[in-house]
Amino acid sequence: MKVPKHIKESIEKSSKAFAKAREHEKIVRDWLEENHVQDETTNDQWIDCVEMGHGQHKSFIDYLKNI
pTM of the full predicted structure? Predict the structure, then answer.
């Protein structure tokens, strides 16, 4: 199968961005664990606001401020 150049570029960019995102995710999850706030509700908020790719990071920060 011939893979178009723009598809190859998108795969490369996605791969690099995902690796960077996982690096930052570990930092956040470690911090949540250290602060004893990594429970089901917090994990659900993290997934809904950040991991689902909706760009709602401010909602997650607001959630943390209100704990």
Answer: 0.80
